[in-house]
Write a structure and sequence with these properties.
Elements lengths: L11 H5 L4 H25 L5 H9 L7 H19 L5 H20 L6 H25 L5 H11 L5 H18 L6 H9 L6
Helix pairs in contact: 2-5, 2-6, 3-4, 3-8, 4-5, 4-7, 7-8
Length: 201
């Protein structure tokens, strides 16, 4: 019996034709919206961010754009790196590049930063838990890898190193660049760096 090929490894058209599309679309966009909301929760907690978001938060200190716009910008830049790797974006890939940033900005617009440290810790924990749920929903829809995940898997497939090694190198680079730009690095950033896989973005 020939094993079935994972949907994530199929082309974008084949992913759409794989069945149960309405349910998978709802799952995809629910995951992306929740991912953006989870990012906003962690930003408002002000206890540190995941490596890519350290980069985003540092970048917007120097240019007049929002955090969500930075997420979208860097997603597009990462997608350009897919070209020499011959990676094929799916509907979920393109949606990821746009929806997460929009959802983050929308949530940030209505979510204040609490003064009490205890509430900020609860907000951070809620953000991490929600992020995990959002990741499971988005990846489970199997409509294409996120821009950053595709970069990692593409490099690994071409012999740069294992996925773990490539992921570590990319995220350490993002973390260092974000720190140099003045991004929000805290002890939680290191915790998120060590536990946050897959990134789904």
């Amino acid at each position: 019996m020939i094993p079935r090929q994972p949907l994530a490894d199929l082309g974008p058209v084949a992913q759409l034709r794989a069945g149960r599309l309405p349910r998978r679309l709802v799952q995809l966009y629910a995951g992306l919206l929740l991912y953006g909301a989870s990012l906003a929760l962690m930003v408002r907690a002000e206890l540190g961010l995941a490596p890519w978001d350290v980069l985003h938060s540092g970048f917007i200190r120097h240019v007049p754009i929002t955090l969500g716009q930075a997420v979208i910008l860097f997603s597009v830049l990462v997608l350009l790196l897919w070209i020499p790797l011959h990676e094929q974006p799916g509907l979920g890939t393109v949606s990821n590049a746009i929806v997460v940033g929009l959802a983050a900005d929308a949530t940030l617009a209505v979510l204040p930063t609490p003064d009490q440290l205890g509430l900020r810790i609860l907000m951070m924990v809620a953000g991490v838990v929600l992020n995990g749920l959002a990741t499971a929903l988005y990846i489970g829809a199997q409509l294409g890898r996120g821009p950053r995940d595709g970069l990692m898997t593409g490099l690994a497939a071409r012999g740069v190193g294992s996925i773990r090694l490539v992921r570590t190198g990319i995220e350490l680079t993002a973390l260092a660049a974000g720190w140099l730009l003045g991004g929000s690095v805290g002890r939680w950033a290191w915790a998120l760096f060590s536990t946050h896989w897959p990134s789904a973005r």
